[in-house]
Each structure stands twice: as structure tokens, then as C-alpha cells.
Amino acid sequence: PDFEARIAAPFRRRHHLIQEILNKRGLPFVPSGGAMYLMLDIRASGLTGEAFAHRLLDENRIAAMPGESFGEAAAGHLRVALTIDDERLADAVRTICDLYDTMREAAA
Fold this sequence. Notes:
alpha+beta; single chain
């Protein structure tokens, strides 16, 4: 039990940190129930998850999985792994939010 708690603690901490940023920036997400990833709902950006992920990688060197990789129900989402250190993860999520805002404004 102690081992499991030590393994889970960083993911809980990162999950909370990222949820705070996403809530503050207004990017919707699907709560993951403590998993080591979070699904971001980027449909309002006007891009598919695949197009968003490619643009994120090409322009910002940030890798994330398009929701379409996980089936039709996850289309229009982006899966972000919580597996890097807190500071780098927070910076990456802020960059994702910036791209989301830019694309959402362009789509409006």
C-alpha cells in the first residue's frame, strides 16, 4: 500500500495542478479519475485532435496524443500524459491553452 501511494502521489499532484490551469484558462477537459493522463476537449478550436496535435508538435515541440487514436468517442480531444516534471508539464499545458485560444478565436 505504501508503494502504491508513493507511485500515485505525483500523478495526483500533477492532475490537480493541471486542472487549476485548465479551469483558469477555460479549456474543458474530461476528469480522468486519477489516471496518468487527462483528456482535453479541444473541439471549440475548430481542429480535429489529430490536426491540433500535429500543430502543437510542429510549432511548439510538444507531443500529445490525438483523441481519435482512442476511438470515435474521443474525437476532438487531446490526451496529455502527466508523466513529466511539474514545471515542464505546467508550461506545456499553458502553451496548449494558448494554441487553443488562438484557434478558437480564429474559428469564431
